[in-house]
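@channel sequence for tomorrow's demo:
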Amino acid sequence: MLLTLSSYKDRYNKNIKEIIGNMLVSDVKPMHCQNVLNVMDNNGYVGSSMARTKATLSAMFSDAAENGLIAMNPVTKSVKCPKKPEKNTKVLTLDEQERFLTAAKESINFNHFLFILQTGVRSSELRGLKWNDIDFENRIIHIRRNVTNDSNNNRFITGELKTSSGQRDIPMTKTAYDLLMDIKGQQAVKKNRVIQFEFADHVFLNRSGKLLPNSNYGRYLEKICDKAGIERISMHTLRHTFATRCIESGMKPKTLQKILGHANISMTMDLYVHVTEDEKEKEMQQFEQMYRMA
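structure tokens (generated this afternoon):
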């Protein structure tokens, strides 16, 4: 798990300081570190937040041990993140997807949402996409970097994708091709608008020529979902919905793994299991119909 300096500071100030901030470093034991995570659990934090806090704790005390301030790191194997009950990730049904897109057409970020539904990219990868990553001739989208938002310092951080699973090429659908051509045409017409130099080559910008953090996307999504009369969703829901449509169309797990940039096939198979559970009744009915015809 890779955390930035600002992430470490954020975790410390939000979750660690109040619990053990006044203790001597040498007095902190595994039970105190466990208590930090238990308090988070009682306050409704999600598993990923607790995992990041544990990683922050471990890094802090690892440095202290390395510099001889303590004998050993108190974040031992016995310190565990409380298990959260698994929740099914929200996926738009076909009907909900159509209603969402209809309601989103008037949004200034309609193309951003539609692009994820056509490619399955992460929101950080959407922000990182540049025009030299788009091969219109061969209709290929090259995913090479991500851009995250440091909300504490109000800035964007670009990171190159180092792994082969993260770096990937996604074939364009006709919809994705037309969408990108439309964006390129719009930017050419508005070429005199002011765009910050650091964002000049990026594909997906707002009206001010800047990148959008997830919090902004979230606010737009809430309004669109309310207008469409569907449950509120996140940017990840759009990615998960794309994956579900791929599975429903018969795409092979290994192919979907490559397109989504999953590090291992088990992550992709979890999606398959989810969709298969939803499709059980329909598939049994198809089986029964075939059996009767035989």
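heads up for whoever presents: The chain is about 55% helix and 5% strand.
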